[in-house]
Amino acid sequence: MIKIAIFASGSGSNFENIVNHVQKGDLLGIEVTALYTDKAGVKCIERAEKLNIPVHINQPKDFISKSSYEQHLLKLLSNEGVQWIVLAGYMRLVGEDLLHAYEGRMLNIHPSLLPKYKGLDAIGQAFESGDSVTGSTVHYVDSGMDTGEIIEQQQCDIRTDDTKEDLEERVKNLEYELYPRVIAKIIK
Ligand code: GRF
Question: Given the CA of residue 10, which atom of ligand 1 is nearest to it?
Fold first, then answer.
């Protein structure tokens, strides 16, 4: 079994979708050790509890530095034997400590066709752009914001009569197919 940890900061629908795939046997050989979140009271925690996945809540503000926060996470990750980190809506730049330990073994999904629309509200940026297509990208994580090596992208239309919510839903639905597929291909 390859052990992965999933990091999320908010809703956690991609987290839930990945766990569902694992629990249904669609991601053979992969075990999700825990959800790691940097925020208390967020929806992903509820989802993890329903799925019987352990949760680690660690808020950077409770540590003296980013490095001590990440060193604490590294201890937890090492205790659980985590080999890969999968970011799914983790709203924080990964620091040197985690990167040094997991570079090349850390994935992220970003809701745009990178290198377009990095950073916050990528779907809003695409919606406002006048583009007729957008999508989502799975990439390796490096020290930049959404800059790591691209592994795979999937695209969808932006329709002229879309609301931003329509587009968000279309991109999310595409991610529920894209991320498990890339995880199965890359994490071996
Ligand atoms: C996803 O759209 C992902 O691409 C981005 O953050 C969003 C997380 O959504 N990095 P959710 O928390 O999985 O619902």
Answer: 12
Comparing 84 with 103, the larger pLDDT belongs to 84
**pLDDT at residue 152 in the model:** 98
Question: What distance in Å separates the CA atoms of residue 35 and residue 117, rounded to the nearest whole number?
Answer: 27
CA 188 to chain centre: 18
Tell me the backbone φ, ψ of residue 81, rounded to 5 degrees: 70, 30
Q: Count of residues for the chain? A: 188
Strands across the sheet with 30-37, in order? Answer: 55-57, 30-37, 2-8, 84-87, 106-110, 133-140, 150-157
Tell whether ligand 1 has an atom less than 6 A from the beta carbon of residue 109: yes
Is 110 in the active site? yes
Q: Please report which confidence band the pLDDT of residue 27 belongs to, taking 50, 70 and 90 as the band edges.
A: very high
- The answer to whether the CB of 175 is under 6 A from ligand 1 is yes
In angstroms, the CA 77 to CA 48 distance is 17
Tell me how far apart the alpha carbons of residues 120 and 125 are, in angstroms, rounded to a whole number: 9
Query: Does any ligand 1 atom lie closer than 6 A to the CB of residue 56?
Result: no
Nearby residues of 80 by Cβ (< 8 Å), 6 or more positions away: 3, 5, 33, 34
Pick the closest to residue 89 from 187, 19, 145, 12 (CA basis).
12
Do residues 82 and 4 make contact, with C-beta atoms less than 8 angstroms apart?
yes
pLDDT band at 40 (very low <50, low <70, confident <90, very high): very high
